[in-house]
Design goal:
A hairpin with a 2-residue loop joins strand 5 and strand 6 (about 30). About 55% of the residues are buried. Helix 1 (about 35-45) packs across helix 3 and helix 1 packs across helix 7. The chain is built from 13 helices and 18 strands. It is globular. The chain has about 375 residues and is of the alpha/beta class.
Length: about 375
């Protein structure tokens, strides 16, 4: 897929026409998907899950020599960006739907439950044994029926799909749903509206709903902007799928960036193809890179953030990305185990499953 004279073309693409900052038409495969859908999602979530702060990082700006902006999705009512996509999808459901289900590594389940509560619907959230207990407890506290299924997110996803048939629920995919992608795309709209001069966006990459939505919105407004997906180097499903040319299964492992874990689904219809076609690059960061970035966020910015939230900073600090202009990233969530966070901040070793992340005191 490529831009030619303001028109985005490519196999399976119905065409994109850009006039100033408005994308007129974008249709893919059997599911038409347009920038108008992102604007419609913006309307559905307005006043609940939008307009989070977009603030500069003095430390990172000094580090890269350009403005480094942070979209603070930690300020969402559920503490994570996932509320945007979940609200967009749940609010679009017809009135006769009685309940919803999803698989989740934590934040999507919070978002779906929050949105379902607003509509008076039942929410059944399927999660694997790898999900941190703090995230499980947080979803239960919102009133969801949480079911722990298997050791991988793929197993949790299969259970969610089974519930659609067995209990008549509607599944809300964490990433491969047009309304979810559109909801996440509203972040891109807000970032480019606030800073149209951004040259690069650093986007945490997991199942690709966030990266797909943000890339679609950003490149519609500015075709020259670079959008880079960043993920951990353990079980990076979208990263490996893009390199293989099709969705693949990967192992799932404990990580400080647990929100980025899980597969993308072998039958992925939307997020894989959009990420493959629109992301300019995908980059891996190590657990040590993530630990250091979490410390930077806390000691330099006084911000508590999940490991998944800081992969943009991690990639820059590790020298894996060198921005040549103003850059923006998304601080995606703050729902983490605070006992682990405390150990990271004090330089202790952290045990996550069978993984030991060696500690290091900040500034030493």
């Amino acid at each position: 897929m490529r831009l030619q004279g303001g028109v985005l073309t490519g196999i399976g693409c119905g065409g994109v026409v850009r006039q100033d900052t408005t994308l007129i038409s974008y249709s893919r495969y059997e599911m038409p998907f347009t920038l108008a859908d992102i604007f419609a999602a913006q309307h559905r979530i307005r006043g609940v899950a939008d307009q989070t702060p977009f603030i500069p990082s003095p430390f990172m700006s000094a580090n890269v020599g350009h403005d480094f902006m942070m979209k603070m999705e930690t300020m969402q009512p559920i503490g994570a960006f996932k509320l945007r996509g979940a609200m967009s999808a749940v609010m679009a459901l017809p009135d006769d739907v009685q309940g919803v289900t999803c698989c989740s590594t934590g934040n999507h389940g919070r978002g779906v439950t929050f949105a379902a509560n607003r509509r008076g619907m039942k929410a059944v959230i399927c999660m694997s044994e790898l999900v941190p207990q703090a995230k499980v407890d947080g979803i239960r506290a919102l009133g969801a029926d949480v079911r722990i299924i298997g050791t991988t997110q793929d197993e949790a996803m299969y259970e969610s799909q089974r519930l659609c048939v067995a209990e008549g629920l509607v599944e809300i995919s964490p990433f491969d749903d047009p309304h979810v992608i559109a909801g996440q795309g509203t972040i891109g709209l807000e970032m480019l509206e606030a800073r149209p001069d951004l040259s690069m966006l650093l986007v945490p990459l997991s199942g690709g709903g966030l990266a797909a939505g943000v890339a679609m919105a950003a490149k519609a407004i500015n075709p020259d902007i670079k959008v880079v997906g960043i993920t951990m180097d353990r079980g990076a499903a979208m990263y490996e799928s893009i390199r293989a040319g099709h969705p693949v299964e990967v192992g799932e492992y404990p990580s400080l960036a647990d929100s980025l874990g899980g597969g993308i689904g072998l039958q992925n219809k939307l997020s894989f193809q959009v990420c493959r076609d629109l992301l300019d690059d995908t980059i891996l960061v190590s657990e040590e890179d993530i630990r250091h970035a979490m410390q930077v966020m806390f000691y330099e910015e006084r911000i508590v953030a999940e490991g998944a939230s800081v992969v943009g900073q991690a990639a820059v600090l590790a020298g894996k990305i060198v921005p040549n202009g103003p850059v923006g990233t998304i601080i995606t969530g703050r729902n983490l185990d605070m006992s682990i966070f405390a150990k990271i901040m004090t330089g202790e070793d952290v045990q996550i499953g069978d993984l030991t992340v060696k500690g290091k005191r900040y500034g030493i």
